[in-house]
């Protein structure tokens, strides 16, 4: 825990965990303010988890999240009220500490001289020069000049961001390129299904962000607060401004745990787990190993979600483990799907239905999880079948694997880049923004109607890089993305149905059928998933090596 002293009685830090509460208690801290919204990071504990640990230690906790955009006057007022009402010594935290220091600085600016505020922040390791600029500009952040400027700025250091940076750098080595991302750790998220199935160790899916940023690319370790596309500017948390000539937006999506009542309070206990969070995937395997009888629920929310097959992957691997242990006959597996089909591409459904039968799974369509009572081990679902009035059902469980509802990140949804549903609005072939010619997007955050998978980003990154390179050379778009996505459905330990498809559900196999028939469960596909895809991800995709991912030539003229 990296504690920084702002005043004798106020400290700040990056994200804390429940395990840090004892150390804060030992330092005399009497209250905590959380300035980070839940669901920002895959390995982020929720505020409810922090609050529960704090209460147990006799520490008060308050939630003052800064969700998106610039820090508002209302945010400052809420933070100021917390400072006045909570007992001191007080500790505030967010993802990096910057939001907390920014709030404190704006609050202090009402009564203290600016040099004192800047000096205190600097002594704590935070540059608040943006505070002075904002106050001098009547409370608005000027974007006519920036703190830094680059030929290409990439928002997001996930699979899409690092891959497109590497691919673009290989094409145009002389470009100044920056990746903006606040995370210290980069995760191979497709591996979490295997962690939850007891095949991978969680640690093998994580590497430091700094070790993956391509050589020659600048890493700006900060969160984005807002976009000013009219001024070619990105505003960072803390009011710093980064200017760009071209922008790539790929921050991923938001896991909206809070959309399900009671879910955050029970995650990681009471048998409630999810492979969608790094720290919970091992708990999935723990629950599978410990369950010998009872009911296991596997939920899937409304689309869109990242990797639409992931909820049932967890179900199949769990069923296989219980089958191998000889306890499957005593376990009632229920698949609670908000949608109306098992899988969106019909060619793969027959193979999957064989495993539904093998594991004796009950399919419950149009069932959307709305609430969880962890201690009572009861889940509530809204049932909305076509042409019928919605009803509500409560289902008891012994174990439940939850796939959370998912949305675009808050700072995307409120931005000029978003469509009506909140996703970045792009041309689905060229991945260029429909309104801003110098902006592109890829990965889970954009609105093209493709499956949101890492395999999709692997194909999208070279397309974006090729089209940006063409744009720099004064040409129109030359490459197109065909909607390719891949979902290796882990139907049992040792076999996978390798679903590969593009726009409209058209099959897009990477290998000849005689080598690997993706519509059937095969050991070859399992070998690909377990042994080949992780090194391809780390050593090829993230390094700009476009194995089986070369850009497809644009067939129809782009605008």
Automatic annotation (TrEMBL):
Residues 150-270 form the FAD/NAD(P)-binding domain. One of its GO terms (biological process) is sulfide oxidation, using sulfide:quinone oxidoreductase. Gene3D superfamilies: FAD/NAD(P)-binding domain, Protein tyrosine phosphatase superfamily. Keywords: FAD, Flavoprotein, Oxidoreductase, Quinone, Transit peptide. SUPFAM superfamilies: (Phosphotyrosine protein) phosphatases II, FAD/NAD(P)-binding domain. GO terms for molecular function: FAD binding; hydrolase activity; quinone binding; sulfide:quinone oxidoreductase activity. Residues 2-110 form the Beta-lactamase hydrolase-like protein phosphatase-like domain. InterPro entries: BLH_phosphatase-like (IPR005939), FAD/NAD-bd_sf (IPR036188), FAD/NAD-binding_dom (IPR023753), Prot-tyrosine_phosphatase-like (IPR029021), Sulphide_quinone_reductase (IPR015904). The keyword Transmembrane helix does not apply. Its cofactor is FAD. It comes from the Bacteria. This is TIGR01244 family phosphatase. It comes from Seohaeicola zhoushanensis. The lineage of its organism: Bacteria, Pseudomonadati, Pseudomonadota, Alphaproteobacteria, Rhodobacterales.
């Amino acid at each position: 825990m990296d504690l920084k002293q702002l005043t004798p009685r106020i400290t700040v830090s990056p994200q804390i965990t429940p395990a840090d509460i004892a150390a804060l208690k030992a330092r005399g801290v009497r209250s905590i303010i959380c300035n980070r919204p839940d669901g920002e990071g895959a390995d982020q504990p929720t505020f409810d988890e922090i609050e529960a640990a704090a209460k147990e230690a006799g520490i008060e906790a308050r939630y003052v999240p800064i969700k998106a955009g610039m820090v508002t006057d209302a945010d400052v007022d809420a933070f100021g009220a917390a400072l006045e009402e909570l007992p001191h010594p007080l500790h505030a935290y967010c993802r990096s500490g910057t939001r907390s220091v920014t709030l404190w600085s704006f609050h202090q600016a009402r009564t203290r001289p600016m040099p004192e505020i800047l000096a205190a922040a600097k002594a704590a390791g935070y540059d608040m020069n943006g505070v002075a600029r904002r106050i001098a500009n009547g409370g608005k952040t000027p974007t006519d000049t920036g703190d830094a400027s680059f030929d290409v700025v990439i928002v997001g250091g996930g699979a899409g961001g690092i891959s497109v940076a590497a691919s673009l750098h290989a094409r145009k080595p002389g470009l100044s390129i920056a990746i903006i991302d606040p995370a210290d750790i980069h995760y191979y998220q497709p591996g979490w299904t295997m962690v939850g199935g007891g095949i991978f160790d969680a640690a093998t899916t994580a590497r430091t962000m700094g070790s993956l940023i391509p050589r020659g690319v600048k890493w700006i370790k900060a969160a984005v607060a807002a976009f000013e596309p009219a001024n070619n500017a990105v505003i960072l948390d803390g009011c710093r401004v980064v200017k760009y000539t071209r922008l790539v937006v790929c921050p991923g999506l938001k896991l909206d745990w809070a959309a399900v009542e009671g879910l955050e309070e029970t995650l990681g206990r009471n048998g409630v787990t999810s492979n969608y969070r790094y720290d919970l995937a091992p708990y999935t395997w723990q629950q599978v190993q410990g369950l010998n009888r009872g009911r296991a629920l596997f939920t899937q929310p409304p689309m869109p979600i990242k990797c639409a097959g992931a909820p049932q992957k967890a179900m199949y691997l769990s069923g296989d483990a219980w089958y191998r242990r000889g306890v499957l006959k005593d376990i009632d597996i229920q698949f609670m799907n908000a949608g109306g089909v098992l899988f969106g591409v019909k060619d793969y459904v027959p193979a999957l239905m064989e495993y539904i039968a093998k594991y004796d799974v009950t399919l419950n369509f149009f069932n959307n999880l709305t609430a969880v009572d962890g201690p009572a081990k009861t889940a509530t679902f809204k049932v909305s079948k076509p042409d019928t009035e919605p009803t509500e059902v409560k289902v008891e469980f012994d174990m439940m694997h939850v796939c959370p509802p998912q949305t675009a990140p808050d700072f995307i949804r409120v931005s000029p880049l978003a469509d009506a549903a909140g996703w970045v609005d792009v041309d689905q072939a060229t991945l260029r923004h429909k309104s801003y010619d110098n902006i592109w997007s890829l990965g889970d955050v954009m609105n093209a109607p493709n499956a949101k998978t890492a395999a999709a980003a692997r194909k999208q990154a070279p397309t974006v890089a090729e089209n940006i390179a063409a744009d720099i050379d004064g040409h129109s778009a030359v490459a197109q993305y065909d909607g390719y996505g891949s979902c290796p459905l882990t139907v049992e330990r040792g076999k996978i149905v390798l679903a590969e498809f593009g726009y409209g559900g058209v099959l897009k196999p990477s290998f000849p059928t005689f080598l690997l028939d993706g519509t059937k469960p095969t050991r070859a596909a399992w070998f690909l998933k377990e042994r080949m895809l992780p090194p391809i991800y780390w050593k090829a995709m993230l390094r700009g090596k476009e194995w089986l991912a070369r850009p497809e030539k644009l067939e129809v003229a782009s605008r």
